[in-house]
Amino acid sequence: MKNLFLCFALLSVVCFKNEHDLKCKDFHIGKFELVSKFDNRKYILDRKQNSQSEETFDLKTGKKIGNKRIYNLKWINDCEYILLIDTLKSKFDEADIYINSNGGLKCRIFKIKNNSATITTTFEDNSVESVISKIN
Fold first, then answer.
1. CB 45: neighbour CB atoms within 10 A?
2. Residues in Cβ contact with 63 at an 8 Å cutoff, skipping those fewer than 6 apart
3. Tens-of-pLDDT digits for all 136 residues of the chain?
4. In this structure, are residues 66 and 57 in contact, taking their beta carbons and an 8 Å threshold?
5. CA dihedral 35, 41, 42, 45 (to 10 degrees)
6. Which CATH number is correct for 21-134, 3.40.50.720, 2.30.30.700, 2.40.128.20, 3.20.20.70?
7. Per-domain residue ranges of the chain
8. What is the Cα–Cα distance from 53 to 136, expressed in whole angstroms?
9. H-helix or E-strand containing 8?
10. Quick one: which of 46, 119, 54 has its CA closest to 80?
11. What single DSSP character describes residue 117?
């Protein structure tokens, strides 16, 4: 009986691993949704190893805003990364050039709950906190 209970407990740990077990590394590759109350927009992020594409939608209307933007994604460690606009693959403006020339957007995952990560994005002396959720 004791062995049966031990087998069931072990099986539960192995087979029922779920979204509560996400780590920073789980936010490196895949599709994510970021809802920003700061600018009232929703962003759909598609991350590959070294890049991130981003589509933007107005939260009120649900309509797409602008063109898809492509960023170069550089992971510093499992929980910190830098975003730089890819000027060869995206339309960009002077603000993007300024951000790129000053080291890009520095992002840090500091909290993970269920399938979501809370991130601080910093540029110069400004920081914005946001939550991204894994959608696949």
1. 18
2. 57
3. 443 333 333 334 333 444 457 899 999 999 999 988 778 899 999 999 899 999 999 999 999 999 999 999 999 999 999 999 999 998 999 999 999 999 999 999 999 999 999 999 999 999 999 999 999 7
4. no
5. -100
6. 2.40.128.20
7. 21-134
8. 15
9. helix 2-15
10. 119
11. E
DSSP 111: E
Structure tokens at 127: 């920081």
- Say how far apart CA 80 and CA 75 lie, in whole Å: 6
On whether the CB atoms of residues 65 and 55 are closer than 8 A, the answer is no
Which amino acid, 100? N
Nearest one of 43, 127, 51 to 88, comparing CA atoms: 51
pTM over 0.85: no
